[in-house]
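Closing statement on the zinc ion sub-project.
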Amino acid sequence: MSELHKFLFDGVPVRGMIVRLTDAWAEILRRRAANSATGAYPGPVRELLGEMTAAGALMQANIKFDGALILQIFGDGPLKLAVVEVQPDLGLRATATVVGEVAADATLSRLVNVTNHGRCAITLDPLRKLPGQRPYQGVVPLFGDRHEKLEKLGEVLQHYMLQSEQLDTTLVLAANDAVAAGLLIQRMPVKGESNLAGEHANEDEIGRNEDYNRIATLAASLTREELLTLDVDTILRRLFWQEKLLRFEPRTGAGGPHFACTCSRERVGNMIRGLGQDEAHSILDERGEIEVGCEFCGRQYRFDPVDAAQLFAAPGVPAPGSSARH
Ligand SMILES: [Zn+2]
């Protein structure tokens, strides 16, 4: 069963998390493989999307935010778009759009950053929007400080966390067909008086905290193979046997990471209304019905001419874009 574990390092300003997605990740892959229009993802896409899904779960669990965390990569290679959405209850879904051939040994840059134009976006979309409120979005490139292409998603996201939260973060990610897993280690801000002056002030600067640096080095030594095959207790014991860990009750089962798609007939109907009546009619004239498949879960929604007429005639239904006022 999929699981997420949080822990603190006693007495030092460092916290950590491990996620292991098994059934939730298998469900995402199964649904894609069952989609006759697309077929299964190529191997390198499975690996990247799995790492993104694990990272999305870690990032959602790491913030206090009532809304969806959406992790996207806009690629300039054969992988055009990869999307992971994680809800506060760790319900998650993922999809990717592939155009053309993907080499079996394609690296991250060959997949999404051929000409250094690939981008990674992190969006926080509040569940209950205030009037006029827009989702927060941060965007980072897929290259490092010297414009060198990054070949690990973990490094890309470490840059993002450093930029957005001003906190040192180490992320180790790995995925195969059975498991998508990740380890996150983060320096916690030094609180209170110690921030004000003296030698402690330096410890709150990026890259300067010795405890964090020691623990981050241990975390970075975790291999892909270990992360994918070892259970959480064994990983923590092997990496941090000299540290004192305070562990929280793991999130698993219904309260843990699980596959969940937020699509609905109502949402698809709103999308069709957004197309406008003329466009909807021209699709109906051409095909006899409007058929929309959910890219995340594969569910098919069909609207015949009667359904479509109801969409545009229904009284009391808010017009598209007006939902923010309700
Ligand atoms: Zn769906």
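The chain is about 35% helix and 25% strand. With this model delivered, the sub-project is considered complete and its resources will be redirected to Aim 3.
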